[in-house]
């Protein structure tokens, strides 16, 4: 999204790249834009060209950016995290697109990714970097089976540990979260109502972790926002420990029961405040504790998520992505909520940092008896963390059950497609195929 100008139509942006590569008349540039959009697998190229970036899905935006990169007929395509934050089916489509472009155009490609399963699925050679230096370079089959460098071993072990982590040490009790017949809709500029969520019902017992998965646009984030009252619902009920986010008890009372951790940790933390000031806000708003004791309380919360008291004096931009996300989690825990909503909280983090954050969430569940709704497009991580899985498709629940059952033997066709598109399944099918794609 940040690579596209939000005020320019997509076709105009690609035409800029076409004319920068070779001055051509406007009509020829338009024809070239249509050809590029068709080449990257976008249906209705004329509609896409006439659209603004926010009117496209994440997968369509990524294809448009790839079309722009192809405008100058390059010999080398550098793909920097091209599938981050995309669901498994769209991710598989983008990887197939890159492989097809390589075959048709004879392109060499350099793939930069934190997702080891994606790398294993598509790369001929893998280079592992640590502190600005390549510490190991080998074919993926050899590197992932027997990494020789300490840096590569840490990456592989982090993913392997995550894949086998799922446990449920807490005995489930009464439902902390109960959702019945939830429907959410939005009004389009033309007045037509768009239904984002339709008749969604589920419950989460105390101490359980529910994974919510689905393609982009399936309604995952809308459900999350409805659970904390950030979007109004058309119908249905939402209760957290018996309290309704839109009820008469008020937002402050509900905040003591339910908190949300957002995908963009940078956007959810005020850049002008230190970590200490950010951590003090919940106590100030709710009048908890004496001001003199709040620094010590903030330090205890940071320790709970694996950070030191020394981080209290830093600003968000002075923290790594994983550290910022831990601060966001610690801040959400300040009021000791019963329910934590995590919306794509590890999608942009590397494998080792993902494993650390998942470890924090699993430990908090075990130590606090915390109930968690974990929303993610990464089925590998959901399989590692969640006890139960809810699958959404076009705003409806299509499958719901224990994670081990849903992700190993899905019943619904849509769930089957999501599971089949998991990178580890793609890796198993493609690892032996010759490919001219190198990954860092």
Notes on the protein architecture:
The structure is a single chain. Helix 6 runs parallel beside helix 19. The protein has 19 helices and 14 strands. By secondary structure, the chain is of the alpha/beta class. Helix 5 links the parallel strand 1 and strand 2.
Attribute tags:
Rossmann fold; 440 residues; 19 helices; alpha/beta; globular; 14 strands; single chain; 20% strand; 6-stranded mixed sheet; 5-stranded mixed sheet
Describe this structure in a few short sentences.
By secondary structure, the protein is of the alpha/beta class. It contains 19 helices and 14 strands. The protein has helices spanning 10-21, 26-39, 45-49, 58-70, 88-105, 116-122, 140-145, 150-163, 220-227, 251-255, 265-268, 275-286, 291-304, 321-333, 351-368, 379-385, 403-408, 413-420, 423-430, and strands at residues 76-80, 108-112, 125-130, 133-138, 175-187, 193-205, 209-214, 235-240, 258-261, 339-343, 371-375, 388-393, 396-402, 437-439.
